[in-house]
Amino acid sequence: MEEPVLRLPDLSKPFEVHTDASDFAIGGVLMQDGHPLAFESRKLNDTERRYTVQEKEMTAVVHCLRTWRHYLLGSQFVVKTDNVATSYFQSQQKLSPKQARWQDFLAEFDYKLEYKQGKTNVVADALSRKAVLAAVTQPQSSLMQRIREGLLHDPQAKSLLELVKDGKTRRFWLDDGILYATGKRIYVPRWDNLRRELLKECHDSKWAGHPGTHRTLALMSEAYYWPQMREDVDSFVRTCLVCQQDKTLQKQPGGLLEPLLVPTRPWESLSMDFIVSLPKSEGCGSILVVVDRFTKYATFIPAPADCNAEEAARLFLKHVVKYWGIPKSIISDRDTRFTGKLWTELFRLLGSQLNFSTSFHPQTDGQTERVNALLELYLRHYVSANQRDWAKLLDVAQFSYNLQQSESTGSSPFELATGQQPITPNTVVSGYTGSSPAAYKTAKEWQVTNELARAQLEKATRKMKKWADKHRRDVVFQPGDLVFVKLNPSQHKSLEIAQSIVEEI
Predict the structure, then answer these.
(1) How would you class 251 by CB atoms within 10 Å of its CB: exposed for 0-12, middle for 13-18, buried for 19 or more?
(2) Tell me, what's the pLDDT at 394?
(3) Contact predicate 294/263, CB 8 Å
(4) First and final C-alpha spacing in the chain
(5) What is residue 112's three-state secondary structure?
(6) pLDDT (tens digit, 9 = 90+) per residue, 63-95?
(7) Which of 56, 83, 179, 499 could form a disulfide with 187 if both were Cys (CB 3.0 to 4.6 A apart)?
(8) For the Integrase catalytic domain, which residue ranges apply (predicted)?
(9) Are residues 282 and 405 in the same domain?
(10) What number of helices (H) and strands (E) belong to the chain?
């Protein structure tokens, strides 16, 4: 006997969808040749619990077909339900508006409804009665109820509701008392300070991290919508007191910009830097910052104050290599002896016997310096008065940074690194889960996204050089020239300014 573990679908074989509904939940299973491919279940909301038995069964059918639409669309399949009346739904003459919407949705599919006795529909029946277990870990929020109430008080929202009821708009629709806009975004009415509270959540909270206007708007637009949202976000960010107090002054360096070549794939080329001279926090006194130059994905690693190359290699393996693999190149403004020792120790930790050599390339892309500035700004926002709890903030800081949309790639680091945006408090509270595309479709879309990101990176690099060079002067040093090298006194305690002689390399 073969164990009923899930397996991948065979698109050359017909599908079967088995569904069932109970008084409080619905469930279903997608099958081929009697073998399960996917399971699905959810609770019924308060409105759905008042449905008739037939309507609950049809809710299960519609929900399962919507969940597995990417598998079922364009293929013939059978839907099996244990309610006799439901099996005649396709030929039903008189329909309520709700049933008419269902039938309109089901018209997209080439399917046949069949009756299956309840005692043989055991899998779907069990799933429809397991909602209590699923509900244990589902966060509850009063936000949705406040939004429902606010729709009745906002004049603009009431006008939109009239258009929806009259069928005069496709940009908005009503579901369970919530008004949705294109992209499954919740319409937030102007009522009871709702909009400002959501702005605070997507800007002030630790997971958001006080981003700028562009990134705050991107976070808001994932889950919410209201007219003139851009103007409201811009006004909120510009008047944020914390941002005004903690922002860093930007100073343009000298010399023309020499940008590096754009990597061809994620995790091929990384930049690395340290934030040092920090107050002791959980035994650490510095932060190792590693940034993938393609996806812009950043990793923030607490490190000892005097972190040597061997310790850096151990941290690099633990926090980067074991998840993403070994990069082809690491860019750092540290001494070449440091990076050489790091590579040697990394290969030793991996148990490799291969010999390699490192070559000196005096270059930097400034990527980690910019990330360092953003991280330091984040820590200033949320660190306590004694500044000794910064290590506890690094995980949330990393989450916050990587979900922000990058202006150079047009996508967030999370999206480019993993193929999708992570679930945030916004999506949990709003209850929106989205659909799960097929694996092959996801892989194809991920490839296209990365190709677009590379094109965007090349375009952004050219634009950055053109803009930066306007604010720089071309400085040419000749061998033998005396120059001043400005050092950070906190990193080089014995010197503040050093005099050096230019040597030809």
Answers:
(1) exposed
(2) 94
(3) yes
(4) 71
(5) strand
(6) 999 999 888 988 889 998 877 666 666 667 777
(7) 179
(8) 262-421
(9) yes
(10) 19, 15
User: In whole angstroms, what is the distance from residue 449 CA to residue 445 CA?
Assistant: 6
Amino acid, res. 208: A
Contact 39, 127 (CB under 8 A): yes
Q: Which amino acid is at 364?
A: T
Residue 486, pLDDT score: 58
At 425-469, the pLDDT tens digits run 877 766 555 444 454 455 555 556 556 655 665 565 555 555 555
In terms of residue numbers, what domain contains 58?
A: 15-135
Residue 62 resides in a domain: yes
Q: 75 with 45: CB under 8 angstroms?
A: no
Please tell me whether residues 22 and 104 are part of one structural domain.
yes
Quick check: is 162 in a domain? yes
Q: If DSSP codes are grouped into helix, strand and coil, which group holds residue 39? A: strand
* Three-state secondary structure string covering 205-257: CCCCCCCCHHHHHHHHHHHEECCCHHHHHHHHHHCCHHHHHHCCCCCCCCCCC
Q: Which residues pair with 91 in a beta bridge?
A: none
Q: Residue 24 corresponds to which tokens in the numbers above?
A: 């409080």
Residues 279, 423 share a domain = yes
HSE, CB side, 13 Å, CA atoms: give it for residue 142.
4
The answer for residues whose C-beta is within 8 angstroms of residue 51's C-beta and 6 or more apart is: 44, 59
Q: Which of 430, 335, 383, 396 is nearest to 145 (CA)?
A: 430
In angstroms, what is the C-alpha Rg of the chain? 28
Q: Tens digits of per-residue pLDDT, 288-334?
A: 999 998 889 999 999 999 899 899 999 999 999 999 999 988 888 77
Name the token pair of 430: 């709003």
How far is 429 from 343, CA to CA, in rounded Å? 45
Mean pLDDT of 177-182: 90
Q: 289 has which bridge partners?
A: 273, 300
Residues 284 and 417 in one domain: yes
Q: How many domains does the chain have?
A: 3
Q: Which two tokens stand for residue 122?
A: 């055991």
Amino acid 502 reads V
Print burial letters for 361-388: b (CB count within 10 Å at least 16), e (below 16).
eeeebbbbeebbebbbbbbbbbbeeeee
Question: Same structural domain for residues 236 and 331?
Answer: no
